[in-house]
Predict the structure.
Amino acid sequence: MSAGSGSSGASPFPEAATLELVGVSKRYPGQREPAIEDLSLSVAAGEVCVLVGPSGSGKTTAMRLINRMIALSDGDILLGGRSVLGREPNELRREIGYVIQQIGLFPHHTVSENIATVPRMLGWEKSRIAARVRELLDLIGMNADEVGPRYPGQLSGGQRQRVGVARALAADPPLMLMDEPFGAIDPITRARLQDEFLRLQAQVGKTVVFVTHDIDEAIKMGDKIAILRQGGRLAQYAAPADLLTNPADEFVAEFVGADRALKRLGLSTLADVELTAAGGPMPGQGTIELAATVRDALSKVLASGGAPLTVLDEQGGAAGIVTLELLGSLLGDGELGDRAASDRKAGGEMLGDRAAGNGTTKAAGSAEQAA
Ligand SMILES: Nc1ncnc2c1ncn2[C@@H]1O[C@H](COP(=O)(O)OP(=O)(O)OP(=O)(O)O)[C@@H](O)[C@H]1O
Ligand SMILES: [Mg+2]
């Protein structure tokens, strides 16, 4: 998106910004325990950082500190290398897209008017606002003529949420804060919104802080995950694969769940795995696509009584064979079969490396978009 004027919907803030929290603490008045204590973490430009933790661990507080809805008790927050403390709060907030489940859209404004909120505050020309609204509705897969004139009450919950994301993106802010944006949505729509957000993010490459209660959502959405414990103390900050492979302590291990080995399999696709060679599709053998996750492959192999599957590439040719034995070695903790510990370790490392590589690809994609 290049800078433009007149009828172009182009934005003035094309660049994603780095975000750094430095020794941040927050004590609410009259509260004995701090809501956040000495929290430091940095988010690279164009990365999605997911904050996850139990209720009351300070996730929403952290978001409000970032856009200065509430005041810091201690520490500093830098956006694009610049302290938010030196910024005029209203101006700062226009540079930060904020999506929240509870407050949502202005009910007496149409969808178009809702999306136009920040561009209007910024004094954009009418034609430019109209073009931007159209572009954003298009981006979230909605028909501008059909949906633009409607009121929020005339949309489904999932549609409202998408409009909320479009509104937050309207002035192309360098930072997006998303506080449980898909929290109250049914699981199927939620999975769709997550996929859509990831697709959108691959295009716009924003720096995003995303809050969720749901570790599976965190693993799916995050380049990095920050796990907070009560009192806003950082338990671990790492890429999803690292978190699943090496939880820092019992709290994190419990939080990511006993099935973390399985979850880790969900981070890699069969394309990341060294498959057993195949001559061609075997008659009667089940098939699975190369783009499927290793976890899906395991489910399918188990469902077929442990029989191997032919893996098909995009052209429908045989890319290799996936066997229960191979999947067992990737699982790496001996839940499947009883391979030698050394084999398991090799498998675990292989998957760990690949999963980490996967994260890099995601980041590289965003960087390209930002460039
Ligand atoms: N305005 C306030 N005044 C006093 N205490 C507050 C205020 N807002 C939040 N708190 C307290 O600060 C702590 C962190 O709250 P916060 O809303 O940040 O948690 P959260 O991690 O977002 O929780 P949830 O997952 O339930 O949304 C809680 O103990 C909460 O009671
Ligand atoms: Mg909250």
